[in-house]
């Protein structure tokens, strides 16, 4: 059996694992880091996402004359999650966000830019950043390339961690299968970055029973390995029913952008009526959509909105798959979807009557112009995108036990750690996923680098 000795072993090469590895290498150039990834060219949640990444007080915002602070960002996150995340950790991650984004752009050479084309519900300040393609794929490709070029990082592709145990000397032994061969890795530090448990139907049934039969549109490899190992090593979990829900057209993850709603689109059920204030956000809406008759609803928007969102990667994808339908009038739309035409027309007329600045009958504040033909529509249901519950961590992303004590040299990042979205699907604010992946990775990377340089210098 092959065996490797390393300072740090990181399991999982999505956004969280990559940022952790890269940051350790940047701040502790003498460290040896080994990162295991099942398949770098397959989907992980970070590549499936459109990867709109929020960050506060970044230089990208400053270039747009946008004033923002970590405190304002933390306030938005906590308003959405009803104060259910740990405030100190939330603020700390917001404080890391600019440095994490700048590190990605300047050191890892990810071409990031300010992404201000859509108004994101719940963000009181524009703070989204992304790649120009508005996709996680090129970002992860850049990060992998950066790691591959780093002399002190060993990126083991086609490598699956299967078991992790503490050795009698306090190190970690990771038993893995690498290109079909058994591999033993012994490390002083362990980072769990396997991306949550959305792809594990048993865990979904156990922790989020209401979504047992819902489509899972995240990566199949997110089977909860990291959370399981963290528990075995003495960690505890929190908010395990938390998840990002998503309105979805097809089981393969085809979906429309949240901009459909935030720019003024509406949702109607198969009776042709609105049933909810759509500005709750797509995550809470996912469960409400599933509660409608037939579990499907219809999103309806118009040419003005389509003009703003048509170039986004996921809209192009949905259009190419024939899932964005356009109609010259409401009659044509209702006939296509077999909706009661008169009722749908009434619904639209009533929606259009609410003046800007006034709340409608569902409590949605009218902020956008009337919807007028030609119209666009898609049939969607609520799905589960990724899980937000996980191992309890401190501000350094170190796993802590039941008593609040940190577990020596064990870190959890990204969706292996409890996120900032509170319980259920309600508290997920757009961007919480990628944001937490890179900031928890940045925090872990800095903390591990500090420990490693301390031990080298002493
Ligand atoms: C449809 C969808 C849309 C989203 N949109 C957004 C968005 O616009 N903005 C946003 O902020 N967030 C979004 N998110 C959430 C965001 O993508 C995730 O929260 C974030 O990418 C998680 O990063 P991660 O590194 O923790 O997990 P991942 O990116 O999933 O990486 C985990 C990696 O671990 C590997 N792995 C798992 N088990 C093992 C093992 N045993 N051995 C070796 N490797 C292993 C997997 O192969 C995977 O590559 C979206 C998610 C989905 C699914």
Sum this structure up briefly.
By secondary structure, the protein is α+β, with helices and mostly antiparallel strands. The chain has helices at residues 15-27, 45-48, 59-63, 70-80, 87-106, 136-149, 201-207, 225-232, 259-262, 282-290, 303-309, 313-320, 330-337, 341-353, 432-457; strands spanning 2-11, 33-36, 53-54, 112-114, 128-131, 153-156, 159-166, 172-178, 181-192, 237-238, 243-248, 266-268, 296-302, 325-327, 375-387, 390-391, 398-400, 406-412.
Q: Could you tell me the mean pLDDT?
A: 96
Report the CATH C-level class of the largest domain: Alpha Beta
The shape is: elongated
CATH topology call of the largest domain: FAD/NAD(P)-binding domain
What's the tally of helices? 15
**Ligand inventory:** flavin-adenine dinucleotide
What profile does the largest beta sheet have? 8 strands, mixed
Nearest-angstrom radius of gyration? Answer: 22 Å
Number of domains: 2
- Uncertain residue ranges: none
CATH superfamily of the largest domain: FAD/NAD(P)-binding domain
What is the number of strand segments? 18
Helix content: 25-40%
End-to-end separation in angstroms reads: 34 Å
Percent strand equals 15-25%
3D structure, described in words:
- The protein starts with a strand and ends with a helix.
- It folds into 2 domains: 2-242 and 388-457, FAD/NAD(P)-binding domain (3-Layer(bba) Sandwich), CATH 3.50.50.60; 245-384, Flavocytochrome C3, Chain A, domain 1 (Alpha-Beta Complex), CATH 3.90.700.
- The protein has 15 helices and 18 strands.
- Strands 1, 2, 6, 7, 8, 9, 17 and 18 form an 8-stranded mixed β-sheet that branches. Strands 11, 12, 13, 14 and 15 form a 5-stranded antiparallel β-sheet that branches.
- With 458 residues, it is an alpha+beta fold.
- Helix 5 (87-106) packs across helix 15.
- Helices cover 34% and strands 22% of the residues.
- The longest helix has 26 residues, at 432-457.
- It is elongated.
């Amino acid at each position: 059996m092959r065996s490797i000795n390393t300072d740090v072993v990181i399991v999982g090469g999505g956004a969280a694992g990559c940022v952790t590895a890269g940051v350790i290498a940047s701040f502790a150039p003498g460290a040896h880091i080994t990162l295991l990834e099942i398949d770098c060219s397959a989907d992980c949640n970070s590549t499936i996402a459109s990867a709109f990444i929020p960050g506060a007080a970044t230089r990208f915002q400053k270039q747009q004359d946008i004033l923002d602070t970590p405190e304002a960002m933390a306030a938005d996150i906590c308003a959405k999650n009803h104060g259910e995340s740990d405030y100190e950790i939330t603020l700390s991650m917001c404080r890391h966000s600019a440095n994490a984004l700048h590190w990605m752009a300047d050191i890892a050479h990810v071409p990031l830019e300010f992404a201000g084309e859509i108004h994101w519900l719940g963000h009181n300040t524009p703070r989204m950043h992304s790649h120009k393609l508005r996709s996680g794929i090129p970002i992860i490709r850049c990060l992998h390339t950066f790691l591959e070029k780093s002399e002190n990082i060993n990126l083991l592709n086609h490598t699956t961690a299967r078991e992790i145990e503490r050795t009698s000397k306090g190190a970690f032994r990771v038993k893995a299968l690498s290109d079909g061969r058994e591999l033993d890795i012994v490390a002083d530090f362990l980072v769990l970055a396997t991306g949550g448990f959305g792809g594990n139907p048993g865990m979904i049934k156990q922790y989020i029973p209401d979504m047992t039969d819902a489509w899972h549109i995240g990566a199949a490899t997110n089977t909860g390995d990291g959370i399981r190992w963290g528990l075995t090593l003495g960690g505890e979990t929190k908010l395990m029913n938390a998840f990002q829900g998503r309105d979805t057209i097809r089981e393969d993850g085809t979906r429309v952008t949240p901009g459909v709603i935030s720019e003024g689109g509406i949702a109607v059920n198969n009776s042709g009526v609105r049933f909810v204030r759509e500005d709750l956000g797509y995550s809470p809406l996912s469960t409400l959509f599933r509660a409608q008759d037939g579990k499907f609803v219809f999103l309806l928007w118009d040419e003005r909105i389509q003009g703003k969102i048509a170039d986004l990667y996921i809209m192009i994808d949905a259009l190419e798959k024939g899932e964005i339908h356009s109609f010259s009038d409401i009659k044509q739309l209702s006939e296509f979807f077999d909706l009661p035409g008169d009722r749908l027309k009434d619904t639209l007329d009533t929606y259009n009557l609410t003046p800007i600045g006034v709340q409608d009958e569902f409590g949605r504040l009218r902020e956008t112009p009337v919807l007028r033909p030609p119209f666009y529509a898609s049939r969607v249901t609520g799905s589960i995108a990724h899980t937000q519950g996980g191992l309890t961590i401190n501000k350094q992303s170190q796993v802590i036990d039941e008593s609040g004590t940190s577990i020596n040299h064990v870190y959890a990042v990204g969706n292996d750690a409890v996120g900032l979205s509170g319980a259920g699907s309600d508290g997920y604010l757009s961007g919480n996923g990628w944001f937490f992946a890179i900031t928890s990775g940045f925090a872990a990377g800095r903390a591990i680098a500090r420990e490693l340089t301390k031990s080298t210098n002493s």
